[in-house]
Each structure stands twice: as C-alpha cells, then as structure tokens.
Specification:
367 residues, alpha/beta, Beta Polymerase, domain 2, 2 domains, six-stranded mixed beta sheet, two-stranded parallel sheet, 13 helices, 8 strands, 10% strand, elongated
Length: 367
C-alpha cells in the first residue's frame, strides 16, 4: 500500500517491517512475565492487553511527524501493553512489579494520574517506557529485543472506561467540544475519579474489619464478634465442631466426610443468634443432646460415613426443640437446609418422636 512518505520516513517504515519478528517476541515476553507476576502476587486484573502498532497506523504517524524520529528505535510505542486493574492501589503494586521486571526509562515515563488541573479530569493512566533486560530474556540471534523500548500502560477499570469513551467520541481537545458537552464530560470524569477513590477506600475498610474479626476470633472473644459471613468463616477455621463430630463418628467408627458449614450461617441468624458467642453457647449447652440424638440415629445402623455437618444439624435440632419449636421448627430447618418438601414434614415428625424419648427433651418438658 503506497504512503505519502518522504525518503527518511520510508526508511523508518522499512526498519519496522524488518523488526516485526522482534516486536512479536517482545510482546510475548512482556505479557508472559506480567501474567506470571500477577498470579504469583495474587492480583486480579480485568484485562492484560497487548498490541503491535500496525503498518498503516505507523505510516499515518510518520506522515504527521516523521521528522521527529531519527530511526525506528525513537518510537517507543510500537509495542504496547496495557494492564487494567480494579483499584488504584493495585496499579501502584503492578508498577512496582514492572520496575523490578523491566528497565524503566524514567525520562520518558509519565504518571498522568498526577497531571490534572483542578478543573480538568482527562483520562488517568500510568505510562512506563521500558526495555526487556537480558536477565529476563536474551537471544543472541535477536539482540534488538533488549535494545528496543516498549510502552506499558497501567490503569484502573474505570480509568480505562473513561479513556475508551473519550476516544470513541472523537474529541481530542476541549476547543473542539461544545461547552455544554465538555461540562458533561468533565462531570462524568469527576464522578469516575470519585468512584475509583471510594472503591479503594471501601476495600481498605473491609480488609481492616476482616483483620479485626480474625484477631478477635483468634483471641476467643466470641461475644464481641458480630455474626456475619466473614466472622463465621474465621470461626469455622478454628474447627469448633470437630470434637462433637469425632464423638459422634465413634458411635459406628465412621469416617467423617467434609462438607460446607456455610449454609448454617443463615440458620443461626434465623434462630436469633447475633454473635459468635451465641454459637459457642449453643455448642456448650446442646452438645450432649446432639450426641444423644446421634446415638439414636446411628446406633442401630451400620452407617460408616457421616457428614461433617451432622454435629451442626443436631445442635440446631436440639436448640429448636428446647426452645419450643416442635415439629414446625424442625420442618423449617429441613426446608432451609435442603429444599421445601412435604417429605420434610414426615422427617421432622420422625425426628421429634425420636427426640421425645431422650433425656434432654425430658428436661425441656419438665421446665
């Protein structure tokens, strides 16, 4: 395809064509190494994009300002890689990783996140101009891989959304945008910046809360810990029901099959439990009744595998019965654990009849 290029720019374009295999190696090395470090550091991203500037795009750039470049190596964006993260803090982490991986050309790198005037939002992004060090990749047949620079962009998902939208409008400067539209664009950009900051703040707050919960659970201050998803998970990590499960398993020398206890969070809440201390009190007060029920359930069978949630289920059964829930309460429990069914009413009645013969129910009925 013919381009309107002078001799100098045509020479640069010819260099580009010769170096295409090198650009492909560079792109693959950079993307592969970034994938690895993100995974190693457990950082989730919404995108890891890469591209090699097309010949047509390069020719267009050379037509406009080819006089600025002495050779193809002066163009630092032939190979471009972009990492799109969830949070600003993750952008900072990724940039630190990039600094360890690559040789950063600080004189040509720019943090556009810090370049805005108070009344202008633009699009935010962190741009590094880098080289691949020989310690990361070296091929004596392709020494240019370590000599040619590439561009690495790092931004958040909201920053990327703004940049894509802004680019899609075709507006390149404030002069070309009617003032009413410019005002709307700036308001939207400001909202996105605020949302970026708030998402980061919320994540920090939640992580601080989780650390506090873990510390309280580890210290055994269960009465001070509100019952929620995070605290319940931390509590389960202490394996509080193992002792009762092992005692139940010993009835038939059964194997304990692991199962998730998380469905019981909703049950505990429905039963009025507010803190982890309420679960501890239930475990303390109802363990013997739960064991008695298990003896009745398993004693005349040869069942040699039990679920790790059997102790939990029996604790809930005893709690419901000792608080006057009766057969309707048991049916509610079975409906919640499994799914609503008429057969659950039959099962609930059987459990109630079994439990009625046990000593913990005698104490309840005598009160």
């Amino acid at each position: 395809m013919p381009y309107e290029l002078d001799f100098h720019c045509q020479m640069i374009l010819d260099e580009y064509r010769d170096l295409l295999p090198v650009y492909e190696i560079m792109r693959d090395v950079v993307v592969d190494r970034l994938h690895c470090v993100l995974e190693e550091n457990n950082i989730s991203v919404t995108g890891l994009e890469s591209r090699i500037k097309t010949e047509a795009s390069l020719a267009g750039k050379l037509e406009l300002k080819g006089h600025k470049y002495a050779s193809i190596t002066d163009l630092t964006d032939i190979v471009g890689v972009r990492v799109i993260a969830f949070y600003n803090e993750d952008v900072d982490k990724i940039s630190a990783m990039a600094e360890n991986l690559f040789e950063v050309d600080w004189g040509n790198s720019v943090d556009k996140r810090k370049m805005h005037d108070l009344d202008s939002f633009g699009y935010n992004s962190l741009h590094y101009i880098c080289k691949i060090p020989k310690s990361l990749y070296f091929n004596p047949q392709k020494p240019e891989v370590n000599e040619i620079r590439f561009e690495l962009q790092m931004r958040t998902t909201l920053q990327h959304m703004w940049a894509s939208m802004y680019h899609d409008t075709g507006y390149k400067s404030g002069v070309e945008v009617p003032i009413e539209h410019l005002r709307t664009l700036n308001r939207l950009a400001g909202m996105l910046e605020l949302a970026d900051d708030e998402f980061g703040r919320i994540r920090t707050t939640i992580n601080d809360y989780r650390r506090q919960v873990n510390a309280l659970v580890a210290s055994g201050n269960f009465n001070d810990v509100k019952l929620d998803g995070d605290s319940f998970k931390s509590y389960l990590n202490l394996r509080p029901f193992d002792k009762l499960n092992q005692r139940i398993a010993a009835i038939n020398q059964a194997e304990i099959q692991p199962a998730s206890a998380m469905p019981y969070l909703a049950i505990f809440r429905k039963m009025g439990f507010k803190t982890l201390g309420d679960i501890e009190l239930c475990l303390k007060n109802h363990s013997e009744g739960a064991y008695q029920l298990a003896v009745h359930q398993l004693g005349l069978t040869d069942l040699d595998i039990i679920s790790s949630t059997l102790a939990l289920q029996n604790l809930c059964i005893v709690h419901i019965l000792q608080n006057g829930g009766g057969t309707p309460g048991l049916k509610w429990l079975l409906d919640t654990l499994y799914s609503p069914s008429d057969s659950n009413l039959v099962m609930a009645q059987q459990i109630f009849d079994q439990a009625s013969k046990l000593s913990f129910m005698s104490k309840t009925q005598s009160r």
